[in-house]
Amino acid sequence: MKFSEAMEACLRGEHVRRVTWGPAMYVYSMPGYPDGIECNEATAKSLNIPVGTKVRCMPYLAVMLGVLDGMPTFLPGYTPQMTDMVTDDWEIIEKRVA
Q1: What are phi and psi of 24, to 5 degrees?
Q2: 58, 31 contact by CB (below 8 A)
Q3: What is the C-alpha to C-alpha distance for residues 64 and 97, in angstroms, rounded to an integer?
Q4: What is the pLDDT of residue 95?
Q5: Whole-prediction pTM value?
Q6: Across 4-8, 20-24, 54-58, least confident range
Q7: Is 97 exposed, middle or buried (0-12, 13-18, 19+ CB in 10 A)?
């Protein structure tokens, strides 16, 4: 399928990937926290604000990289490469952790 079709599917909640990617890697949509959430220590330190301060996280796309050292590992903020956008080798995959 085309990139645009894959992104539409992703925004509907599907997991999508290019057929050339490894079996554990896929893109998925995260709803974020548009109403805000209390920040944890790592976020507070990065933003130089007190732990527990309410912050808003907008929706975003993420890439599941697989299970690394026994933990599902993802990369927030997927930004497609030009080759990702101009190919038609995208597919919907069964939902899974990694």
Answers
A1: -90, -5
A2: no
A3: 8
A4: 86
A5: 0.85
A6: 20-24
A7: exposed
Nearest residue to 39 (alpha-carbon basis) of 50, 27, 31, 29: 50
| Residue 98 to residue 79: CA distance in whole angstroms | 20
Q: What residue spans of 1-98 are helical by DSSP H?
A: 3-11, 41-47, 82-86
Q: How far apart are CA 57 and CA 34, in angstroms?
A: 6
**What are the tens digits of pLDDT across the range 13-55?**
999 999 999 889 999 999 999 999 999 999 999 999 999 999 9
- Secondary structure E strands in 6-78: 15-18, 26-30, 33-38, 54-57, 60-68, 71-76
From first CA to last CA, the distance across the chain in angstroms is 22
